[in-house]
Amino acid sequence: MSVPVRELTPRSNLETIRRQAKRWLKEIEAGDGAALARWHAQNQTRLPKLREVQHAIAREYGFVGWTALKQELAARELAARGKAAIVALFLEKSALRYGVRPGTQQWGGYEADRPARGALALHLLERHPEIARDSIHTAVAAHDLATIGAFLASDPALATRPSAFDGWTPLLRLAFTRLPDHAAATNALGIAELLLAHGADANGFWSDGSNHFTALTGAVGGGENGQPAHPQAEELVPLLIAHGADPLDGQALYNNSLGADATLWLELFWDETTKRGQQARWHEPIRELPAPPLDYLLGNAVPRQPRRAAWLLAHGAHADAVDAHTKHSLVRQALLDGRDDLVTLLLDHGAAPVELGEREAFTAAIARSDAAEAVRLLQAHPAFRLDPGPLRVAIRQGRPEIAALALGLGLSPDAESRDGVRALHEAAGADAVEIIALLLAAGAKIDPVERRFGATPLGWAHHQGASAAQALLAARSRDIGALCRAGEGERLEALFAEAPGLANAPTRSGDPPLFCLPDDDAGAADLVELLLAAGADRQARNAAGLTPAEAARRRGLLDTAALLAAPASN
């Protein structure tokens, strides 16, 4: 039996379709003959759940499923807002932003560079391919080589003209654009060559208020959220350098130092400075780094990156340098982490031996699994049980056995640093689930709020994309705001069942849960449906005076905004 095809009307929106699905489900559950016949017409025999009815109603409208129908409704809502809104959203979401809101030089308070951003931008491009022809900036973000060529043929000055949206030049946009599995990204080299031939500045940059983010920075990627390199980075970076980009790019070096224990970019940058006779600059101060590059990068490499540390020492880094952040000698840092291999490497390159104090010796003993020495020091100094150092080493090294030894000796699982950061925060951010399990078994508090970012461990896990840690913590957390941002509906349902008022209560940010939504539109819409069912007030306003619908729309959550803006169902 064929499925009848219905047509969307100008009045159709996500909320009206959701109400249709709920009404149909109630009729099926009540045994209504017409409703059951309609359900059976889709070759369905068993009684459905709401999600299955939603898929069925989507098929009645001619879509393959509920997600496709939601995307169409969201696209219609966006189209109704006009071309300018589509273009602005595409430019915003298509690029890595490193925590800086477009059009500003202010870091912080902006969404993280998660895959959902690029996925939304790609969906917009697929739904509205004409936006690639709106300007040279949209063409660059779409990696549309032919359209870029046409723009430049008409006006060569466009190659250097900043965007009114965020102030970026086309070359910067090329380097920072990230669309998932985007085949057109293979055009990047040709686009870069075209822009550079028309005068694009390979050393141009945008700023977060203090640091320079150049095209080379964008191509290399990396950083505190593990941002991906451009898909054509290994071809793009040498081209930029050949056209004058400084190979000693401080922000690129910093971002790369936070990633894997690899030397690809170090070797390339070294070779390029050698060609220019500029090796001495590796021993001199440069922008973005608080110490000369070789010494600074060595401090970042010890104790987690032995391969990079060996390369840096072989190329002239000073083994007796201090870590630019902790101000510890690198030998001391390696000792504290129980890395005898790095201690030997540093001493062999001329570092002076270090004498540890008893508190440091306690951390070092646990790090190298010397339980007898750790017990001796702990007996002499019972206060060491409140030292967060040993657990921090375990997390930094990714070694649960160190954490198990420390906790077995009676160290507090809630020991914290001066800014309130606890082992559970750091383990959550590192996705160290084995260590998290050990901490929880030892009685660690689940939702402590640190003073650096004002977040709980669940917030750290979500921010860092640590999915396994997020799942483990969400099952226990009562941090409503973090649970909402992480889209943890099952846990939220359980908490709302205990205390329905939580659906409207201020979260730690001060805003009610409807303002604490996931970054992806589908997840946000699902969460909103849960919150509304729990009694959340869609007319509430946040500190900026926005309703939940207005706030969602500003974030590009168009499906969600349509759901929130619809009249409440009876």
Helical segment count: 31
The end-to-end span amounts to 33 Å
Largest sheet properties: 2 strands, antiparallel
Low-confidence stretches: none
Overall pLDDT score:
92
Q: What CATH architecture of the largest domain would you give? A: Alpha Horseshoe
CATH class value of the largest domain: Mainly Alpha
The count of domains is 5
Biggest sheet, spatial arrangement of strands = 1-2
Structural class: mainly alpha
Gyration radius, rounded: 27 Å
What share of residues is helical?
A: 40-55%
Question: What is the number of beta strands?
Answer: 2
Gross morphology: flat
Q: What amount of the residues lies in strands?
A: under 5%
CATH topology of the largest domain: Serine Threonine Protein Phosphatase 5, Tetratricopeptide repeat
Structural description of this entry:
This protein has 570 residues and is mostly helical. The chain folds into 5 domains: 14-64, no CATH class; 84-221, Serine Threonine Protein Phosphatase 5, Tetratricopeptide repeat (Alpha Horseshoe), CATH 1.25.40; 254-355, Serine Threonine Protein Phosphatase 5, Tetratricopeptide repeat (Alpha Horseshoe); 358-477, Serine Threonine Protein Phosphatase 5, Tetratricopeptide repeat; 481-565, Serine Threonine Protein Phosphatase 5, Tetratricopeptide repeat. It contains 31 helices and 2 strands. Strand 1 and strand 2 form a beta hairpin. The two termini are 33 Å apart. The mean pLDDT is 92.
